[in-house]
Design goal:
five-stranded parallel sheet, OB fold (Dihydrolipoamide Acetyltransferase, E2P), five-stranded antiparallel sheet, Rossmann fold, about 300 residues, about 25% helix
Amino acid sequence: MQSFRSWPDQPWAWPCSYEEPFGYTVQGPLPVEDRKGPGYFPGRHLSKVNLGIMMRKLYTILVDDQEVFLEKMRSEFKKIEFVELAGSFTNPMHALRFLRVNPVDLIILDVEMEGINGFEFMDASPKREVLTILCTAHQRFEELGYDKRVVDVLFKPVEPFRLKVALQRALDALNFTNHRMDNQWNEIEDNYDYFHLSGPGKGQRVRVFHRDIVYLTAVDGMVEITTINRHSIHMSYRSMKDIIGGTSQGLFLRCSRKYAFNVNFFHSYRDHKVYLNHTEEPLDLGKIRLSSEFKTFLDTNKI
């Protein structure tokens, strides 16, 4: 987890931007309810941060079966301030186990290793969304690497300047992803869109605001819509896909074929169940394989 120093005296009250000593710019005053005093970091308002200049470190692991190469890379990492080495591994299987339980932004990965090659490692990774830079001595792997959507392909021996360029690309890609997700949060907060659902009587309509819907349940070709008031349950003959498509992008996340939930009400996930605020019973997903979209959601801002 990245630590932050205490805030200067009341920076949230300043109408101008504040940059030093943190390396990011807070644009304008924060809302009154978020003025918690020195030492408080307003994570809920990352939309106020210019992520392009935010001093965000890349939590990185190195995977290569040659210790000599790892030692050289560790030495170069010490000269690059925006990278933090989380671990280095000569055994790819140990790296995969590390990935399952630790937050990682970037993998610098050798292509040719004993037992498993770099492409097989990427396919086996429990976190497909983690950025990857490939290292290889052979040019024939370059095109295949970019087909796998890696950030960059470095040729051994890796030049220090070329390494720093690749790492900067990875940092830019990470900041772009965070910025895009933060913009989605802003759209959700200001959501006043609604559905007019057919009522129980002929010609009746019930207005339900998108932001008040807690979760959706697919039931016998229909969709059950549960709102903040647990006793307020509505039915729609539209498909789950159509209903989600009619809301702001990012507001609802489909976690299984049966359920989709409003991300604003997410509380926790454990034992194959999604727990939501304003509901008594969790959404039981059963022992299904989680979608990549849901995995990405769970891993976002993980510390």
